[in-house]
Amino acid sequence: MNKIVNFDNAATTKMSEATLQTMMSFLQNEYGNPSSIYSIGRNAKSAVENARSAVAKAIGAQPDEIYFTSGGTESANWAIKATVELRKNKGKHIITSTIEHPAVLKTVKYLEKNGCEVTYLSVDEYGQISQSELKSSIRSDTILIAVMSANNEIGTVLPTSEIGAIAKKNDVFFYTDAVQAVGHIPVDVKEMNVDLLSFSGHKLGSAKGVGVLFVRKGIKLPPLLHGGGQERGSRAGTENAACIVSLAAALEEAMPRLPLTRITQMRDRLIRELLKIPRSRLTGDPVNRLPGIASFVFECIEGESMLLLLDQCGICASSGSACTSGSLDPSHVLLAIGLPHEIAHGSLRLSLCDDNTDEEVGYVLEKLPEIVEKLRAMSPLWNV
Fold it and tell me: Could you tell me which of 366, 384, 324 has the C-alpha nearest to residue 11?
């Protein structure tokens, strides 16, 4: 197989031709500033508002509950830091989990250094939190629960509706990072009982550099960025109209595909066949998992070596999350689910999208066992 086989779609996705063309029209023709009153500015403003309505429809929200940002990281920072400011008279206690994305974990650690108290919920071997632990962690000064909808490394889907119901009962805001969920599984902000929800366009087929923060009606979240009056005075900075329309176009392509039955079937084939490799194991929840993520650890192997040999075969994959792939430390997610350091180092995440084919799955199943065997033959630990 001569072409690149991309099995790292949880890191980023390719834009479709239709989405690209929608975006290009706003880069080349309708390039006006949405705050300008002349025609190309008004056209850009209208496109942004149409996109806002499309995004709202996709997640069961109202258009005035949608705010456009530069991506998931900005949205997470805004949701968490602004909640601390908004609810400072109630308290400074935050609850989160040990498997959150660094955009959440590093934000709460920053706040922890600046006067907040943070409770980190443990997870079981599948990456699921304990709802009883969550309930017992809530205090009178708890202001925010921040638990992701689905984990980016192991694919576990968490029970957001139940978490949101617990938060609501205790007058605690619930924020969920839905970066890996939107466009991949059904997301409805009302059913999920969320106050704040974020996602990023490039994880579902749009351009990079655009994201969303849903803010439930009635919450007046303080700005994270100060400046002009864009986004109804809540998020300063000229709207990135071209990327915003690409996000709406990508969502309108993604939503009719749900549920992702064909992708789930390819994922299950990968899991079934790769678990035949000796001393391999699936990571994440075997049932409640994202359709496109198959994640493993292989004993006595370094994940980085696996990725390099896969790359030589034209296969793109990940060892842990894209945001931590430059680190020599094991994934914090894999350590949180109880894997020892030496096994956590041998992780592999294969993440699929609608462009992937059964032929590509077969190619990975042909090459990966050979790579594992080759690396183990060189490992001094394999036959110990």
Answer: 324
